[in-house]
Amino acid sequence: MRKRATAKQVAEAAGVSKWTVIRAFTPGASITEESKRKVLEIAAALNYTPNLLARSLATNSTRQVAVFVDDFANPQKLPFLETLTEQLQAAGLVAMLININNHFDHVNALLHADQRQVDAIILFGTAFRDETLTDLQLGHGMPPMFVLARDSQIDGVPAVVCDAELALRDIVRHLYERGYRRPGFMSGAAALSTALRRRQHYLEFWAQHSIQNISLLSADRYSADAGAASVRAYLASTPAKERVDVLMCENDILALGAMDEIRGNFGLKIPEDIAIVGFDNYELGGSYGYGLTTYEQPREEMVRAVVSMIKGAVEPETVTLPGRLVVRSST
Amino acid sequence: MRKRATAKQVAEAAGVSKWTVIRAFTPGASITEESKRKVLEIAAALNYTPNLLARSLATNSTRQVAVFVDDFANPQKLPFLETLTEQLQAAGLVAMLININNHFDHVNALLHADQRQVDAIILFGTAFRDETLTDLQLGHGMPPMFVLARDSQIDGVPAVVCDAELALRDIVRHLYERGYRRPGFMSGAAALSTALRRRQHYLEFWAQHSIQNISLLSADRYSADAGAASVRAYLASTPAKERVDVLMCENDILALGAMDEIRGNFGLKIPEDIAIVGFDNYELGGSYGYGLTTYEQPREEMVRAVVSMIKGAVEPETVTLPGRLVVRSST
DNA sequence: TTGTAAGCGTTATCAA
DNA sequence: TTGATAACGCTTACAA
Q1: Tens digits of per-residue pLDDT, A101-118?
Q2: Which end of chain B has fewer surrounding CB within 10 Å, N or C?
Q3: Cβ of A228 and B287 within 8 Å?
Q4: CB-CB: which of B53, B224, B259 is closest to A117?
């Protein structure tokens, strides 16, 4: 059990009251330079620093934000976590990273975060069951919640997402202008609303060009291997004449796997035989070997939006932000 | 300001003292079934749950662990974070994710974690300046610290690492048995002890086979592009006859970039012209397109070791754990 | 089994 | 500017 100096001890050593000590550590408090200097000096000698835990109890604000994550397979999470922690910390907040993968009970995680008195909860791209939330929301008093990088269909829980409609419009326009006319779409495993929406808009915008006959592939996980397996099955069962001329994959990881398979195993050329589009702008996709055309989510802006709402600088409401089409050699 | 029911309120509503309420929520406390049932019932009605913040203050234990991360570019961090949060949570602990990249002051981060009264601090693969630590350690009273996935050269701060000597011995033995005799090594940017150690052991074990002439390449970042650029410069300036027959890269990301460049830009075959070895067993390296031979760190065991020490189940001391050579088609 | 008193280290508020 | 009182919601130790 390690010991720390408390304000009281510093006060005694400095010959002042403990409130004066507190003031010395409170920016802008009314205290004479003289007292402040003396207190800080003694505090340094005694190795005293304010106890944020006690402060949280007294102020009813922990300045901690729970961040729920359930899918650690998507490498895209990492830059998001970096940006998120960076902006939270810059705002004087700190992230509690809570894993809610299969091993954990979602309701319990929520309750636990609440008991820790976090100032807010961010559902970061999680497949949170909506019923779970509605149940608990009713039980009032929960910390404010936000959904990041995924749609929210829960009343009163705002989401910050990349504008899927705009994204798919840009993508399809690009593909159409490049001359592709036989599109395909590879879905990932999850029936997440965000995922479904990408496909839906893809179909919708092709339909506006009177192209309705779209090949639908599906991968059973979000991994390169699953992407490869999916495209392998497709190519193996589809005569060259009938194949798509462009395949959009729901995210970059699937796309990378598909590219490997198309070039390596089938000896086809990208984009001459089949063009490929991904989603997320995962770093490796931009490397020489791939040159994957993709769409980048406005990470900084999305995070900024959530953090602003948490800080209370902005009214909480669902925000949809435009991303950026990144054209490379795969289309 | 949201309101929560407190133990006192529940006590009044239930007609008992608040300590009885506490007992109802304390497993194994001495309380009659009758009182307990009643209290829990009223508590549920009032939406009461114990305030973990107040508990932490009273018990002097937050059950929070600060996890410092500075390099979010390495996708290997993600599975580690998943395992770490999983095991911490299973032990009743929760991770505070603290970003200490360039934007932040390391000393301050440490001080801040301390002020938050965390039970422990994990330096997860960070390039923490050792002087920083020694300074602060002296100021006693800091939470116990641990270094994960990197060597620690700081007195009293134990590390949990993958056994580099064993790893490189296995790798070099494998390469030697496969018949390779002209090895090369690509280093990443950082002068991290862990990184230097890999190269050192690589040289050492080749030397045991009387092979001393080892080509040293270096990449200026840990990214696929940097790996590609490094190998490009090498190949462009080295006649085919004089080239290495096997190139070990300090991690998988560098290796993947190198592979792309070797095959795509130079039209060489892997492993016939140049064999490649990586380190980390990053998922994409295992996909069909790469088939990268690599070495897998014993993630679960490493995390288990740290968590055991934090729980106090095991004496804190540096632990070196054996990993696993993963042989694929690139060698 | 249950209630009481004291304490954890702060902050808010008011009085001096 | 400074000091004092009460409060934050819980735990520990002890008494009833």
Answers
A1: 988 888 889 989 999 999
A2: N
A3: yes
A4: B53
Report residue A310 as tokens. Answer: 């948490």
Question: Which of B306, B292, B243 is CA-nearest to residue B84?
Answer: B306
Cβ(B160)–Cβ(B149) under 8 Å?
A: yes
Measured CA to CA, the distance from residue B169 to residue B204 in angstroms comes to 9
Tell me which long-range contacts B11-18 makes (C-beta under 8 A, separation of at least 24): B13/B42, B13/B45, B13/B46, B14/B38, B14/B39, B14/B42
Distance between CA atoms of residues B120 and B64, nearest Å:
7
Residues in contact with strand D, defined as Cβ under 7 Å from any of its atoms: A 16-17, 19-20, 23, 30-32, 34-35, 54, 57-58, 60; B 4, 6-8, 18-19, 22, 25-26, 50-51, 54-55, 57-59
A8 Cβ contacts chain C strand, under 7 Å? yes
Q: Which of B144, B231, B149, B148 is nearest to B186 (CA)?
A: B231
3-state secondary structure of B240: helix
Contact (CB<8Å) A257/B287: yes
Q: Which residues in B lie closer than 8 A to residue A141 (C-beta atoms)?
A: 2-4, 47
- Tell me the pLDDT tens digit for each residue of B264-296: 889 999 999 999 999 999 988 988 778 999 999
CB of A84 closer than 8 Å to CB of B101: no
The answer to whether A21 and A11 have CB atoms below 8 angstroms apart is yes
Residues of chain A with pLDDT under 50: 1-2, 138
Q: What is the dihedral of CA A300, A302, A303, A309, to 10 degrees?
A: 140
Give the Å distances, CA to CA, from A66 to A135, A155, B215: 19, 20, 48
Please give the pLDDT value at position A139. 55
Place of tokens 């830059």: A79
Q: Which nucleotide is nearest to A29 (CA to C1')?
A: D1
pLDDT value at residue A1: 32
**Residue A46 has which token pair?**
């005694």
Average pLDDT, chain B: 90
Listing DSSP states for A66-124 in one string gives EEEE---S-TTHHHHHHHHHHHHHHTT-EEEEEE-STTS-HHHHHHHHHHTT-SEEEEE
Structure tokens at B157: 């701060």
Cα–Cα–Cα angle for B39, B45, B47, nearest 5°? 95
- Residue with the two structure tokens 């490869």: A228
Instruction: Give long-range contacts, CB 8 A cutoff, 24+ apart: B232-238.
Output: B232/B261, B232/B265, B234/B184, B235/B261, B235/B262, B235/B266, B235/B268
Q: Which amino acid is at B146?
A: F
The integer distance in angstroms from the CA atom of B36 to the C1' atom of D13 is 22
Contact B126, B70 (CB under 8 A): yes
Alpha helix (H) ranges present in chain A? 7-14, 18-24, 33-46, 52-59, 77-90, 106-115, 130-138, 164-177, 193-207, 224-237, 252-260, 299-311
Amino acid letter, B1: M
Using an 8 Å CB-CB cutoff, list chain B residues near A257: 287-289
Give yes or no for a contact between B205 and B168, defined as CB atoms under 8 angstroms apart: yes
The answer to whether A111 and A142 are in contact (CB under 8 A) is: no
**Which chain A residues are within 8 Å of B312, Cβ to Cβ?**
none
d(CA B244, CA A95): 46
Return the amino acid letter for B109: A
Confirm if B22 and B30 have CB atoms less than 8 A apart.
Answer: no
